[in-house]
Amino acid sequence: MYREITLLLLIGLVAWAYQAIQPPPPKICGSPDxxxxxxxxxxxxxxxxxxxxxxxxxKEMAKHKLIFxxxxxxxxxxxxxxxxxxxxxxxxxxxxxxxxxxxxxxESDPHPNRTMKSLALDIEELADQLxxxxxxxxxxxxxxxxxxxxxxxxxxxxLAGATLMAPVINYWWPGLPANLSKKxxxxxxxxxxxxxxxxxxxxxxxxWWNTQKLFPASGVISLRPENFSPxxxxxxxxxxxxxxxRMQGMVTQQGVFESLHxxxxxxFGKWEFDPLDLDNPFPNNEGSVxxxxxxxxxxxxxxxxxxxxxxxxWIKYKEVxxxxxxxxxxxxMSEAIVRALLDRSK
Length: 346
Ligand SMILES: *[C@@H]1O[C@H](CO)[C@@H](O)[C@H](O)[C@H]1NC(C)=O
Ligand SMILES: *[C@@H]1O[C@H](CO)[C@@H](O)[C@H](O)[C@H]1NC(C)=O
Prior knowledge:
The protein is of the alpha/beta class. Helix 3 crosses helix 4. The chain has helices at about 1-20, 85-95, 115-130, 145-155, 180-185, 190-200, 205-210, 230-240, 255-265, 300-310, 335-340, and strands at about 40-45, 50-55, 65-70, 95-100, 135-140, 160-165, 290-295, 315-320. It is globular, with a radius of gyration of 21 Å. Helix content is about 35%, strand content about 15%. This is AB hydrolase-1 domain-containing protein.
């Protein structure tokens, strides 16, 4: 009797736990109970839709075309590069930019089988369907940096140049010295160390971990002020007034699992390659790769970024003094970043 009750309780507990860790299915855009489709979208060869938004001059008029990939908890509306240039500069440079919603974000269909490689192939397919030509630029901000590393690995022959803006580092890249990686990891808030551990070692628990209320979950998701530099906090305030897309929940309208949590599992999971092993994609100087970083960034440790820049000497590393993670919103910064990318001699 006693044993049977214990067994029943155990079965109940397992069933409850199983329920609790299961993410609900995503609310697909355009499906009967999903949000409406309002964005321009292409249909990829596997049937998924990818939403995009165009900026700058028309692609027919453009001298330079770039694809912009947003960071964590953002969307195609967050393109702080060409959208921040004056009309004169846009026309002088002849620049066109297209920003996407990463799979599962905004109006792009979720991709439960997403990998590092699939994102590079999505970008290549977008370029081809939009007719951007044989070569284009890629720029990724923060977690969008993963897409750029992936393009450098899988489609380097398609790139005219690339820029990484405060790219997020995976502490488990094998090429990072263990002691340095550990030191940088320990700079993160304890709650963020835990959400990274869960994302890396127990991805099946990511949904539960970041939705339960017993322990503090990701401080990046909850915008803990400790994660932002004084300059970042100013920009956050300004952005909150300007951007209402984020407040409307558009970013994660299809569910947090296929957007935020999938991003964490891929970004901090086991990668199929190590960026520190990459070769110069432009050995004959046909293009350049830039990495911009604020020296007061609290989300991405600058000490690791400096190490990466030293190891990959073909990357043009620019550290911005006094800047945090959101430095792209500083006056004149977007113009400096775009001009450096387009000008091969810099
Ligand atoms: C994901 O991969 C599995 C196994 O390879 C496959 O059966 C499934 O159809 C894929 N799903 C999507 C949405 O691509
Ligand atoms: C890590 O170890 C290497 C080699 O033992 C040493 O040169 C370096 O200073 C150490 N770095 C840190 C941050 O402790």
